[in-house]
Amino acid sequence: MSVLDDFSTADEVKVALGKQKYIANDEIATITYLSQKLGKPLLTEGPAGVGKTELAKAISGATDRELIRLQCYEGLDETKALYEWEYAKQLLYTQLLRDKLQETLSEASNLAEAADRLASEEDVFFSMRFLLQRPLLKAILSDRPTVLLIDEIDRADAEFEAFLLEVLSDFQVSVPELGTLAAIHRPMVVLTSNNTRELSEALKRRCLYLFINYPSVEQEMAVVRLKVPDLSAKLARQAVELVHTLRNMDLRKSPSISETLDWAKALVTLNAKKLDPETLETTLSILLKHESDLQRAKRWLQQPPRSRFDDDEDPRLRGWRN
Amino acid sequence: MEERIIKFISALRSSGVRISLAESADAMNAVDHMGVQDREGFRLSLRSTLVKDAANLPIFEELFPLFFDSNQPPPLMNLSEDLTPEEAKMLAAALRQFKDQLQQMLERLMQGDQLNQQELDQLGKLVGLDQVDDMRYRDWMARRMEQALRFREVKEALRELMELLAEIGMNRQRVEQLRQMLQANQQSLEAQIHQFAGQKIAENMSERPPDESLDSLLNRPFNALSDKDLDRLRKEVSRLAAVLRTRVALRQKRAKSGQLDAKATIRANLKHGNVPIEIKHKDRTLKPKLVVICDVSTSMRPCSEFMISLLYAMQDQISKTHAFAFIDHLEYISPDFAGRDVRQAVSHVLERMPPGHYNTDLGYSLQNFTRQYLDTVDRRSTFIILGDGRNNYNDPRLNLLRDISRRSNRTIWLNPENPALWGTGDSDILKYAPLCDAVVQVGTLAELTAAVDKLLA
After folding, report:
1. B321: which strand partners?
2. Checking CA distances to B346, which of A166, B32, B36, B363 falls within 20 to 30 Å?
3. What Rg do the C-alpha atoms of chain A give, in angstroms?
């Protein structure tokens, strides 16, 4: 039926994701594969900026499905997530169609008949035409298979989570005026969470769990080389190693992969040849977004000798690798 | 295999991982899809279906190899094949110098015999391995088993043996070689024992009867709880906090009486041809606000850990919670909760405010509060004090509490002490009591639940 079903091994998933410029390790590939095989939503958790949302995008690209995204926030409710009647449009139509209605009703001989006629036209105003589809309904009604990304579910309220359970388990929605709308294609669902609050057991129970952590130096190298090919291999390695050292420091916010990439791009733009103190001074703010973190990192960088950036395999850095 | 997986799941459960029936069914399904040939795939299919909390991943990684790695311990080398007849004769002569048991052990090392299942079982029984169902005792149990095998004496004996051999006239290089091989064999035996201990404990864990019922735990006083009980209770507390929060939400929904919601009204009345028959109101966004002050002094220590975890759970549920802790002065602890899990947060707070010889001083702490944080209290907030009111004869500063109490919606005092002791010695609780809307004794979790329910009402 769908393209996704063509994957018969986890390795194929890996290759397909790779084509979307997403470097998946065995863990990500296997669990993604499983979630597709079992038809279960995939709950990804991990620090901010490790590519959880990116994974959903890559899956949608790899399977040639449309990506429908629902960004969660505090106060998100059904009318924003599922559907809403477009009442303004309904009102407008009633106004514009007044003459036509009058015409229809004028032929009626008595009140009862007029009411019957009006009732027979009722469906016009409660049809899909006036239904404003929000992401969840869109994913359910889409006539092509889709990937539904529910981003940062931990930001939504607990009530919304409970409501989501119903949708995720049956993939059908009941609209009182229209009846039950069932999914034509079961969308592939990816949920992401930054773990700012505990998700309910019930939601977790329905999902497969994938924890994405910061990648190893080698993996991150591969990502940097893929996305910023202009950066020399040597400089890329130094940069990635520095980022890893920073991650092991007790910072308020550790640099994420996306920030490493931004930094790498900045290094290319600045035409940096090596990571000298000057370059670091000017570009470190791309990696670290808190003043206290910046100060701390700078202090730390001033202590050890500069020479450690010159050789690729420094024993001191080895201990920090993940 | 299925049986093995089920055992594994019950071992996970007894280590504190919550696994539902649906999840174990998912695990079986996933294994069907992935097969068991590819070990990595097998591991991941179990992990993604069973473990849904990053904090539980280490438990999974520790138990998995114990259940699914092959039972084969590292192989031992047979030295006797390696020896020339002459050397063998020398060795035999040297061995005769040792006592029976040691001699047997040394011979075993020479020949590279692994311990068989029966011997392992016997050893296990000897050190009481059957009663152990906690992974933390694994190393200790392994060490006890090694002691039962007299490993230390064997090591000693090995050195003597080597010296003897050298004396008898074996080639020095050869002796060194022998020594290394024997040592390697001994290490393999140690590894085998360690593995056995782990597996045995894991099995015991999977057979452990379900834990004591929560009800009895709920009614036990805070200071009579073990670490493990605390862990379970902590879970119970966060569950309670979630329940209570929903209850609050419901109460607020029922009590809608806010402004007219024009949008919702039009929407609801479309079916009546826009004749406003059903009037919709905006939800009152009156979310509860909590300001909590917690005594963490020595007298409160047994239950303060618990109180702080309750604070943590509340903060998780009610975003407008301001938590403070005091001994002789007040500290704002809400920021300590951010980005930490319960346990870390609690120990962080308790480390920051270590118990000492200095005096509990609620009066001064209230003054701190009034000066710096009084703006956190308004007519929507519930002001809660967790403490025994034992003020070390310091000035209770009743006027400050009166002010705060006037500003807040309600003031509640939760006291872990038995009411019979209130007002005795340095307890000022009876002086404070008239200023509070309620003073409740919370000696157990059941009482705490009742109190929290009441205060969120």
Report:
1. B290
2. B363
3. 27
pLDDT in tens, B293-318: 888 887 777 777 777 777 777 776 67
How many C-alpha atoms does B386 have within 13 Å on its Cβ side?
30
Give the DSSP H or E segment for B25.
helix B21-34
Quote the longest CA-to-CA distance of chain B.
Answer: 114
Q: pTM for the full model? A: 0.65
Minimal Cα distance from A40: which residue of B?
B26
CB B362 within 8 A of CB B396: yes
Residues from A in contact with B at Cβ < 8 Å: 10, 26-27, 30-31, 34-35, 37-38, 40, 43, 45-46, 84-85, 87, 90-91, 125, 158-159, 177, 195, 197-198, 200-201, 204-211
Q: Kindly state the DSSP code that residue A199 receives in the 8-state scheme.
A: P
Beta strand pairing call for B381-386 and B410-415: parallel
CA dihedral angle for residue A8, residue A12, residue A17, residue A19, rounded to 10 degrees: -130
Better-scored residue on pLDDT, A53 or B261: A53
Give the nearest partner residue to A205 out of B22, B249, B316, using CB atoms. Answer: B22
pLDDT of residue B80: 63
Give the bridge partners for B324, in sequence order.
B293, B332
Predicted complex ipTM exceeds 0.85: no
Instruction: Name the residue with higher pLDDT: B271 or A138.
Output: A138
> Does the pLDDT value for residue B151 go beyond 60?
yes
pLDDT at A58: 92
Residues of B in contact with A26 (CB under 8 A): 40, 44
Q: CB contact, 8 Å: B104 with chain A?
A: no
- The overall average pLDDT reported for chain B is 78
pLDDT at res. B247: 59
Instruction: List, as one string, the DSSP characters of B171-189.
Output: -HHHHHHHHHHHHHHHHHH
Which among B20, B47, B267 has CB closest to A205?
B20
* Tally of CA atoms within 13 A in the half-sphere of B179 that contains its CB: 19
In whole angstroms, what is the distance from residue A129 CA to residue B324 CA? Answer: 55
* Burial (Cβ within 10 Å: 0-12, 13-18, ≥19) of residue B37: exposed
pLDDT at B286: 58
B335 touches chain A (CB under 8 A): no
Report the SS3 class of residue B291: strand
**How far is residue B295's CA from residue B390's CA, in Å, rounded to a whole number?**
10
